[in-house]
Amino acid sequence: MRDKIIQAAMEQIKKFGFRKFTIDDIAADLGISKKTVYKYFDSKNQIISAVVDAHMEMEKARTIEAMQTEGGWIEKFKEVVFCDNHEKVPNWLLEELQRFFPEEWAKADAIGEFKCEHVKKLLATGKEKGDIRDDLHPAIIGLTLDKTIDALFDYKFLNQHGLTISQAMEQVKNIILYGILKRE
What we know:
mainly alpha, DNA binding, 2 domains, Transcriptional regulator, TetR family, HTH-type_TetR-like_transc_reg, DNA-binding, 184 residues, Tetracycline Repressor, domain 2, Arc Repressor Mutant, subunit A
């Protein structure tokens, strides 16, 4: 039942946001009483925390799965760094999480570090195979990527430029993999 409550909360959060969904909505969606919800969670904030934890676990599992797939380092790199999951998160929801639930937003840093370790391994493989230019240090590429991706989660920037996270990530992917100079 706990997992069903988390899933229902995820759906409610997608519709109404972190602050506006209610325990009543979750109970109604599941056809259970509020009392049943409170058997598993002490508060709405505890549900929000569980939803964020579940999302972070999915990101971690997606990273591990990408690392174990067939294919070369570049395919794994694209999947780990530029997965299409960001399209599902609207800017306004990110803004709400960052502004009103900073302790939950901080959990993204742990996943970022986890992914960063895998990216470093992939970049080292690319360097060993001769696919990455000799004059570029993998640690600098990793740092650039890490800081750039962190900056893309700034909802003010995204809103100011009319971008979704997915669109911004696609631009970063193109810059990292192909550079900024026109090809002739």
